[in-house]
Design goal:
Length: 399
């Protein structure tokens, strides 16, 4: 850390004291596996982090059990525009406070971290409200509807002395760590290319997936984009094609609607060192494993190089193995079997651990912003028929 960065970081710490007067601030310099060091800050040293969750639909049914087991989190507040859902979750998990609107939630019982599990089109403006109220934010993907909006939220949080993070948490899996290690150590010689895919028959239970601001890329492709950029580094440019297979969908909450957002997409990314990666995603893929991926035992991410190949078994949000063959051992071997405790819904719990202990998460807001720019660039590529150059970046390698 240079002097300018140090002064800037100290300024952020001071702002955090103002935002969270009960916090006990301390800083520890810890080696990060690089030449430089990163200052880790525990904002609420040793305390349980008080959490407010907005959006009490099906995703909350995954987050709440995970957070209820965390020694670093205490969910104190719930909110949903359908108040009966917030009340039901409150009764289910013995949470005393629930609200029908974010303004009432922010004015209600004190909490430290907002966990945003609402429809993706709502993330940007709700996250802004929380940041303006001095709350740390964990947002389900994406953290905003455009890269520009996401960058504004990131910079606003910095000015407030707080932080925002965005899903997914795929970089936390032991399979990702293993694959990153093999690549970083040059086990495949010159890496050339990678492919990833994720699709199913569609989330027809809610209309927002098919409306403006929805789509299969921010819902499904976002996982693969996060994994591939996490493994190979930021993308330099993007070319994409996408379309709509089903022009109308009978949704569970709005009945028949016209499909506006893409339900079929392919994206080609150029990374550093001439590595090319490709993802495909959509809401029209027959998959006997269904939406939750139970029983998926086939590769969903494959990497090839001059010295070998490697395949993630299971989806990157629910992996349980890595198959690898190299010139040194040509017979394919399986490594890192099992989930190692990783859960796709663990992101908010990991952030609570950071806020309580100072253990810096692998999940990085600027990585999430880079993924958001890729999503936006892919749509521009389709619309204009061009290759789109990217501006954003993030700290890499992740491990």
């Amino acid at each position: 850390m240079n002097r300018k960065q140090f002064i800037s970081r100290i300024g952020a710490i001071g702002a955090a004291v103002i935002i969270a007067p009960k916090a006990n601030i301390h800083a520890i310099e810890t080696p990060m596996g690089r030449e430089e060091k990163n200052t880790r800050i525990s904002v609420f040293q040793g305390e349980k982090i008080k959490v407010g969750i907005i959006g009490c639909g099906s995703v909350s049914g995954m987050y709440l059990p995970h957070m209820s087991k965390s020694p670093y989190a205490e969910v104190v507040s719930l909110c949903d525009i359908r108040p009966e859902r917030a009340q039901q979750r409150a009764e289910e998990y013995n949470i005393k406070n629930w609200y029908p609107h974010i303004d009432e939630m922010l004015a209600g019982v004190r909490f430290d971290l907002l966990v945003n599990l609402t429809d993706m089109q709502e993330h940007g403006h709700l996250n802004r409200k929380a940041i303006n109220a001095g709350k740390f934010v964990w947002s389900e993907k994406p953290m905003a509807n455009t890269y520009a909006e996401g960058r504004e939220l990131f910079e606003l949080a910095q000015k407030k002395g707080i932080r925002i993070w965005g899903a997914p948490a795929v970089v936390n899996s032991p399979q990702f760590a293993f694959m990153a290690k093999q690549i970083n150590e040059g086990k495949f010689g010159k890496v050339a290319a990678a492919h990833a895919h994720y699709g199913h028959l569609g989330p027809d239970w809610s209309a927002f997936f098919f409306e403006e601001g929805g789509g299969s890329i921010p819902d499904l492709g976002v996982y693969n984009i996060s994994t591939l950029t996490g493994l190979f580094g930021p993308a330099k440019s993007v070319v994409a094609m996408m379309n709509i297979i089903r022009p109308t969908v009978n949704t569970g909450n709005k009945g028949p609607i016209q499909v506006i957002a893409e339900d079929n997409a392919m994206i080609l990314m150029e990374h550093q060192n001439n590595i090319l990666s490709h993802i495909q995603c959509g809401f029209n893929y027959f998959d006997p494993y269904g939406h939750d991926g139970t029983g998926q035992e086939k590769p969903t991410i494959s990497i090839v190089g001059r010295g070998g190949n490697m395949h993630m078994i299971g989806y990157d949000w629910k992996p349980f193995g890595v198959d690898m063959a190299t010139t040194d051992h040509e017979e394919t071997q399986r490594f890192v079997t099992g989930d190692g405790g990783f859960r796709w819904e663990e992101g908010a719990s990991v952030i609570c651990e950071y806020l309580s202990t100072g253990k810096e998460p692998l999940i990085d807001a600027e990585h999430a912003l880079h993924v958001l720019e890729i999503i936006e660039a892919a749509r521009e590529s389709q619309k204009e028929g061009i290759r789109v150059q990217l501006k954003s970046s993030f700290r890499w390698p992740v491990l």
